[in-house]
Specification:
about 210 residues, seven-stranded mixed β-sheet, mainly beta, Phosphatidylethanolamine-binding Protein, 12 strands
Length: about 210
């Protein structure tokens, strides 16, 4: 099975139009266009009954006290954790593309729809937890929300778009399920896996 994101090379830089956060011109960040990239795939396993698409950043900081703070940086060697940007399950086995902008074309404060969609079942991404407690932004964020790494992070972030073909037509998840929930539900049902990686940074010292 192969996955491709035409907007950037595998291992290359993600264009800013696909990011939730972009440079503000003063060394910090502001909201961007947040347009989901086109994702294409080919598969070879005839027994595939559904697909799962996950976008995860395994390089997210674990100490929020250092994030986006003037005069300090998030050190490169700080322990990192998974941050999910897109969780989509129960994709029809005959589908092979998600078009650019099909699920996200803006930043929507207060959350975005999750659950049943024309593509399958949308879970919630990690911005649900990140924005909790923020009166302007908190909510349950379904669908795609692009990169928004700390503008003071010394590490270039990686975004892994992972596609799985499964031997079941549905993972039978509902409500605001997460990336972790999907990984647990897929256990023992994965036929094939493919990944496409992009990188992104808002650190002025890195991007110039």
């Amino acid at each position: 099975m192969e996955i491709e994101i035409p907007a950037f090379e595998n291992g290359g830089w993600i264009p800013r139009k696909h990011a939730m956060g972009i440079p503000d011109g003063e060394g910090r960040a502001k909201f961007g266009k947040n347009i989901n990239p086109e994702v294409r795939w080919d598969y070879t396993h005839e027994d595939a009954l559904s697909f799962v698409l996950i976008c995860v950043d395994p390089t997210a900081p674990t100490d929020p006290s250092t994030v986006n703070k003037a005069g300090v940086t998030v050190p490169e060697d700080q322990p990192r954790a998974d941050f999910y940007h897109w969780v989509l399950i129960d994709i029809h086995p005959q589908r092979s593309v998600i078009r650019e902008g099909e699920v996200s074309d803006a930043v929507k404060a207060g959350g975005k729809k999750f659950g049943l969609s024309g593509l399958g079942m949308m879970g919630v991404n990690s911005f649900t937890d990140w924005f909790a407690g923020d009166p302007e932004l908190e909510g349950q964020y379904g669908s795609y929300d692009g990169p928004f790494p700390p503008w003071n992070d010394e590490l270039v972030h990686e975004y892994h778009f992972k596609l799985f073909s499964l031997d079941v037509s549905s993972l039978e998840l509902s409500g605001p399920f997460t990336g972790e929930d999907v990984l647990a539900a897929m256990d023992g049902h994965i036929l094939e896996e493919a990944v496409w990686v992009g990188k992104y940074s808002l650190n002025k010292a890195i991007i110039g």
